[in-house]
Design a protein that fits this description.
single chain, alpha/beta, Rossmann fold, 5-stranded parallel β-sheet, 19 helices, 14 strands, 13% strand
């Protein structure tokens, strides 16, 4: 009785009788089988078809089985290729395996051998496809696209992520609580060659010294009260992948010494053990503390500080990138509507203006929380300022020192309101930078972290003249 495993197979042989025999056996197994009577025809089908397994004769006239193998692997690395080899051609079969063939069948073979070899190859091919699909889903959830922003500050962050993501360099991410440091760590991992291996995270502030060390390095049975079984630590779990240490500034001094040794030696010892375990880990750390002050005060080891701060990425607080707020609001509204299965509901123009003007001490995390709560609890068809700020509304001032966001003649749509607010923000921000620097474009651009050319381009777009007047 045949299996009902789904899967598409291409059978390639220049002997028509062999093609028909193979197709008959494999079709009975429940596979969808297509055939090709030459290497040329096989290549055309591989280019246009979506196969999981190719079964090809090695020695054919014209394009050989070896060329079919090479092309198939180039088109789709997950494609399993099984080579049928003539008696006495073991050497060629070994060469085919080196080029990426999944397996080979030496002639003569019986139908049971064929079934077993194809089933194994199909299972592997389908597993690889599933793994790749899951990885894509994870990348969509945790990748670059989740970091929302078009401001100059954030563009610099994106540029720096791109520059270091594909290396193994240790990165220290700095920023206030709620700015999105973990999202940046995710982007670094999922844009690196380690993306198919684990991304392991640990918050150093949440645990006592004993627990921090047990979590990081693992422990042997009986190492301390409650250690009833051997446990693998985060370093071992992250082997081949990335270890993200959040709030590393809160790590106890004694543990810092052990972390430094693990980084230098590329090995760890479990608590209560004496065996060195080799680990291959890319380290990313994050902190909202002033580590330089902690070093001066003796709370953080200077040698570890320099080991962690090979590359530093600074995530700006939300009030330093107010022009991103409308984009973030739109992003969080859509995500919350999808997640909570609620209809999307726009912000009123007044609510959006209030969002841009608010100081957001909790940064992006606070904004997201306010938007999600407003979507769930607001009674009307749109979200107003009272829905977003509730008890805070009385204290909320729409006037901020720089920049003030104003809307002339309240726009009717969310998108129009967003564009008005962003333009008003940019105009005020650039104008005041010019005034502070006596109309000197170079100095104004430098002060706010923009390139001179970008600053001038924005001035032209917004109709700002060199004397700082819009």
């Amino acid at each position: 009785m045949g299996s009902t495993m789904n899967g598409r197979i291409l059978v390639v042989d220049d002997e028509k009788a062999m093609v028909l025999a193979l197709k008959a056996v494999l079709s009975k197994e429940g596979y969808h089988v297509e055939t090709a009577n030459s290497g040329e025809e096989a290549l055309r089908k591989i280019e246009t078809g979506d196969f999981h397994v190719v079964v090809s004769d090695l020695s054919m006239g014209g394009i050989s089985g070896m060329q079919v193998l090479e092309r198939a692997r180039a088109v789709d690395p997950d494609l399993a290729v099984i080579m049928i080899t003539a008696y006495g051609s073991e050497k060629t079969a070994v060469q085919a395996m080196k080029l990426g063939a999944s397996d080979y069948l030496p002639k003569p073979f019986d139908n049971d051998e064929l079934r077993v070899v194809v089933r194994k190859a199909m299972e592997n091919a389908l597993l690889k496809r599933d793994h790749r699909r899951l990885l894509r889903q994870v990348q969509d959830s945790y990748g670059f696209e989740q970091i929302v922003g078009r401001s100059e500050n954030m563009r610099r962050v994106f540029d720096n992520i791109e520059k270091v993501a594909d290396t193994d360099v240790t990165v220290l991410i700095r920023g206030e609580s709620g700015t999105g440091k973990e999202l940046v760590a995710n982007a670094l991992h999922y844009r690196s060659p380690r993306r198919s291996k684990p991304m392991v995270k640990m918050n150093c502030a949440a645990l006592s010294r004993e627990l921090v060390e047990s979590e990081l390095f693992g422990h042997e049975r009986g190492a301390f009260t409650g250690a009833v079984a051997r446990r693998e630590g985060k370093f071992e779990a992250a082997d081949g992948g990335t270890l993200f240490l959040d709030e590393v500034g809160d790590m106890p001094l004694e543990t810092q010494a052990k972390l430094l040794r693990a980084i230098q030696e590329k090995e760890v010892e479990r608590v209560g053990g004496n065996q060195a375990i080799k680990v291959d880990v890319r380290l990313i750390a994050a902190t909202n503390h002033d580590l330089e002050e902690a070093v001066r005060a003796g709370r953080f080891r200077e040698d570890l500080y320099y080991r962690l701060r090979v590359v530093e990425l600074v995530i700006p607080p939300l009030q330093e990138r107010r022009e991103d707020i409308p984009l973030l609001v739109e992003h969080f509204l859509k995500r919350a509507a999808d997640h909570f299965h609620r209809p999307a509901k726009p912000l009123s123009a007044e609510a959006l203006q209030a969002c841009v003007a608010h100081s957001w001490p909790g940064n992006v995390r606070e904004l997201r929380s306010a938007v999600e709560q407003a979507l769930l609890l607001s009674p009307g068809n749109e979200i107003g300022p009272a829905d977003l700020f509730q008890g805070e509304l009385k204290q909320l001032s729409l006037q901020v020192d720089a920049p003030a966001a104003t809307i002339d003649g309240m726009p009717s749509s969310f998108r129009e309101a967003k564009d008005h607010i962003v333009q008003a923000f940019e105009r005020d921000f650039l104008t005041q930078a010019l005034r502070r620097n006596g109309g000197n474009i170079t100095k104004a651009a430098e002060e706010i972290g923009m390139y001179r050319q970008n600053f001038q381009q924005k001035m032209r777009e917004l109709g700002i003249t060199v004397d700082g007047e819009a």
